[in-house]
Fold this sequence. Notes:
This protein is mainly alpha-helical. The protein has ten helices and no strands.
Amino acid sequence: MTPRDPSGVVAAAPAASRPRAAARRLEAGLWFAAPLVLLVLVWAAVVRFYHVPLRVFPAPADVAGALLQQARSGALAGHSWHSLRRVLVGTTLAVASSIPLGIAISTNRHVAALFTPILRFFSVLAGIAWIPLATLWFGYGFGAITFIIFNAVFFIVLYNTILGVTSIPQVLRDAARSLGANRWQVLTEVLLPGALPNIVTGIRTGMGFAWRGLIAAEIIATNAGLGYMLFLARDFYRTEVIVLGMILIGAIWVLLDRLILAPIERRTIERWGLTRAVA
């Protein structure tokens, strides 16, 4: 645990612990990258040993060449930006609407029990299940894809918000009221902090569904984005571009998850949840 001075202020971590923390992060990064490097080596060996033609499946060198070509033309940055922008807009709208609604529903346990089975049903529907309706309602383009992402995130975050609030013991709410807390204070100092670990987990899970739904929707409902890049490359038998797109889709999601979502979830749980930070 991080030491505190007598006034209760958290003291700075010892300088000696910083190199150890950096070494642990470096070791974790190497362990994470090692299987991926091994996979690329096996991939290169199999393609070369069996003389797999480019039209069937590319070699790593072919994919690297496609990466340079797409980067120089600006197409790679454009497709990536369109995909990320859609995820950001759809997720922001879903989170901004689902958390207040979830708290409002879960303040009454009977209402929460009524909505929980419905939300559990919708939360497991993949984003691609909404594509036919989205294209009928909004046409092909930004609106349809944003709607698909919104649905992928909204129901999962809403369900997790209700789950988090209803899991807070009633004795904590009563204790806050007995100490003079009003409804707003109970909401902001008891319910919302107690539900945050579930909410952040719901956002992380929902964005995973949203990312998969986005790629599927871009294949069908737009003319830009990483999913569209895969679809366009298929028409010209550009397998190296297809594989490049698949790698980028996975790599972008891994970076978003490990660098942004996972640290937020971990720190939220350490601050409000079940575990404590380790020095």
